[in-house]
Amino acid sequence: MKRLKELNGDNESRYREYLKMVEILSTNRKLEQLIEEEEKMLTQVEQTKLPSYRIGMQQGMQQGKQEGRQEGKQEGEGYLLLRQIKRRFSQLPDWVEEKITQATTDQIEQWADNILDATTIEEVFR
Known about the structure:
Elements: H1 2-8, H2 12-29, H3 32-43, H4 51-89, H5 94-101, H6 105-114, H7 121-124
Helix pairs in contact: 4-5, 4-6
């Protein structure tokens, strides 16, 4: 195992491949315990120091920020549209809030434009 680690250097994925091969061979030679100990050591590697981990984290954080901004924009626009409808028509049927919360940003923006000319709630959503 030590020699295998030396031969693979910092290439952890290659080392894991060979480790799996050794694991298969070890069942024939009763070496399972040794393999289990080596697997435990491998899981103790500080993954946060690996470049692939940092790159993945950065990409995930960027994607999360972008999704959060989009969701926040959609919720804000929906909330504003609800306020406009309440002010313009006083009554707010149950279906209106549900329709707005399930809508896309484009739909909400279209309905916000429609409210300027609509004389009924139904006309807002046409």
